[in-house]
Amino acid sequence: MLAFPAAGEARVGEAGGRDAGAGEARTAAPRPSLRDAIENWCHRVELAPDLAADIGSRKWLRGLATMLGLSGAALALLPGFSAVEAAATMPLGAAQQDEFRSQSIAPLALGADTGRHMGATPLVSPLTGVPERPTVQLTSTLGRGDTLPRLLERAGLGSADVAQVTQLVGGIVPAGDMASGTQFDITLGRRPAEGAARALDSLTFRARFDLDVSVERGPGGLMAVRHPIRVDETPLRIRGTVGSSLYRSARNAGAPVGAIQSYLRAVDKYLSLDGDLRSGDEFDMILAYKRSAKGEREVGDLLYAGVARGGKPKLQLMRWGDGGGNAGGKEGEMFPASSIGQPRAVPIGQPVASTRITSPYGGRRHPILGYVRFHAGIDFGSPYGAPIYAVADGVVTFAGRHGGHGNYVRLQHGGGLGTGYGHMSRIAVRNGTRVRAGQVIGYVGSTGLSTGPHLHFEAYRGGRTINPAGIAVIQRPQIDGRERDAFKARLNRLLGVTPGAALGSIEPAASDPVDAEREIDKLGR
User: Fold this and answer.
1) Which intervals carry biased composition (Basic and acidic residues) (predicted)?
2) pLDDT band of 13, cuts 50, 70, 90
3) Are 475 and 343 in contact (CB under 8 A)?
4) Most CB within 10 Å of its CB: which of 97, 233, 270, 367?
C-alpha cells in the first residue's frame, strides 16, 4: 500500500526543492567580462547618434562629444610631416648643379636664366665674326614723372644724340607739355664704332592732337620736322527724350558720363531736376568735339545745354567767353539765352541738400528760452558737417560770430535781397568775398543758441526779414551791347548742328600722309 504525503507537505517540499535548485543555478553561472560589459553599455547608450536629427537634445550633445573626442585623439596621434633624411647618391657642388640645370629642360621653361651655354656638337662650326643687325626698331613710353633724356638713354642713344634730340624737340613742344603715356617710335641705325652706342636714324611721336613731330637724320645731321594733322572741329550734338531718369536717358543716347555731369550741373542752376523736368521733355546738349585724320576722337567742354517741352525751348544755356574772341572777360561760363533780354526773376537755390524743415518761418516756442518768440527764418535739419551753399550770386557782407546765430554768414544779392546762414560749424568765406550760386560758404553745425546740428536760413529785403520760402532774385542782363549780336550768332550756329553729324569719319585728303608699315609690325603677323 502506497502512502502519499499530505498536500501541504508536498508543496512545501517541492517548493523548497525548486528554491534550492535555483540558488544552485545562480551560483554556478559565470560573471560577465569587462569587454562584454562595455559592449552592452555602448549598445544601450548609443554614443554615435545621427547629428542631423534631434539637434540640441541630450543624445545629440552626446554624439557631438564623441565626435570632438575622436577628432582630438586623431590630432594628438597625427604623425609629423618632416622630410625623411637620406644621403644623396653623390655630392654636387654649385658648379655641377648649374651644369645639370643647363643641360635639362628647365632653361626652356625659365628662359635659360642660368646664363650657361650648351656644349657645341660636331655639327656646329665656329664663325670668325657675326654681322650685326643694320637697324633696331622699338617703341618707348614716357612714364609719369619721366623725362625725355632718360627715355632716350633707356632706348640706347648716345649722350650726343640725347642732347641734340632734347634740344630739337624742346623747340617745338615744351618739356612740361608732354603728357605721360606719350609713345615714341625710335629707329636706331648702325654703330659708328665697335662698342659705341647706335646712332639715331629717326624718332616719331604725337606732340598734340593736331601735330606729329619727327626727328630724322639727314645729310647735315639730325633735324626736327613738323607733320600737321588735319582736324575737324564739328561740335557733337546729342538729343533725346527724358524718360524715368535724365541721366539714364542721356547715357542711352550715347552721351559721355563727364558731359552728362556738366549738363546736369548747368541745368540745375535754373531748373529743379526733380520738379521742373518731366517725362517726355527733350534734352539737348552740344559738346566741343575734334576728329583727326588719323581716326582719333577728343571730347571737349559742354557748349550748349537745352531743355524743350512740346517742341518749344524751356531753357537754353550757352558757354560764352571761352577764348573764342568774345569780349567781356568771361571765362567759359554758361549763360542763359534769356540773359541777353530784359531782367527777370530767378528762384533761389537750396541752401543745403536736405529739404527737411524742422522749424518754419513765424511764431514758435523757443526750444532753449522756453517762451513764444518770432522765428525769423527757416530751419533745415541736416547732418553735422554738411556743406551749405549760396542760394544766389552775391557778396559776403558778414562772416563771423553773431550772437545766438553762432557762426553766421550774410550775403547781399541783387534787387535789395539778402540772405543769412546761421549755426555753422565752420565758415568757408571771408567778408567782402564775391560768391556764385551753389558755392560752398560753410558747413552745418550747432553753434549759438541751438539744440542740435541744423541750418538757420534767413532772408532780408530792405533790411527787414521776410519769409525765405519761394523768394526770387532779379537777374540783370549779363550780355548786352556789342556782345548781344555775337552771342545770338554763335547760338544760331550751334543750333544748326545736326545731331550725330560729328560721329562720321573724315574723308582723307590727297595731302594726308600715308604711314608706311614698319618692319617690326610685319613680324607680328
Assistant:
1) 515-525
2) very low
3) yes
4) 270
Give the 3-state secondary structure of 374-403: EECCEEEECCCCCEEECCCCEEEEEEEECH
> How far is the C-alpha of 446 from the C-alpha of 455, rounded, in Å?
8
Is there a domain that residue 127 lies in? Answer: no
Is the pLDDT at 127 greater than 90? The verdict is no
Q: Is residue 490 part of a domain?
A: no
122-136, 358-372, 487-501: which range is least confident on average?
Answer: 358-372
Query: Number of C-alpha atoms within 13 angstroms, CB side, residue 399?
Result: 18
Residue 427 pLDDT class (50, 70, 90 cuts):
very high
- In the listed set 190, 207, 228, which residue is the last one of a domain according to the structure? 228
Q: Is 481 helix (H, G, I), strand (E, B) or coil?
A: coil
Q: How far apart are the first and last CA of the chain?
A: 136
Q: In this structure, what DSSP letter does residue 214 have?
A: E
Residue 519's pLDDT is 54
276: cell is: 521742373
Cα separations (Å) of 135 from 198, 217, 442, 519, 520?
Answer: 9, 14, 64, 10, 11
Q: How far is 271 from 291, CA to CA, in rounded Å? A: 33
Q: Which residues of 157-171 are buried (b: 16+ CB within 10 A; e: fewer)?
A: bbeebbebbbebbee
Percent of the chain with pLDDT over 70: 78
369-406 exposure pattern, b = at least 16 Cβ within 10 A, e = fewer: eeeeeebbbbbbbbeeebebbbbbbbebeebeebeebb
**Residue 12 zone, left/alpha/beta (φ > 0; ψ -120 to 50; rest):** alpha
Whether residue 359 is found in the same domain as residue 459: yes
Domain match, 370 and 266 both: no
Residue at 162 is within a domain: yes
- 154 and 203, same domain (yes or no): yes
Query: Which whole-number Å values give the CA distances from 45 to 50, 133, 187, in the listed order?
Result: 13, 88, 88
Instruction: Choose among 32, 34, 61, 40: nearest CA to 49.
Output: 61
CA distance readout (Å), 167 to 42, 194, 208, 354, 364: 95, 27, 18, 58, 76
Count of positions (residues) in the chain:
525
CB 412 within 8 A of CB 485: no
33-91: pLDDT as tens digits: 888 887 787 777 777 888 888 888 888 888 888 899 889 888 888 877 777 666 667 77
Give the helix/strand (H/E) hosting 431: none
Which pLDDT belongs to residue 19? 46
Q: What is the pLDDT of residue 344?
A: 61
Average pLDDT score over residue span 302-312: 90
The pLDDT assigned to 518 comes to 54
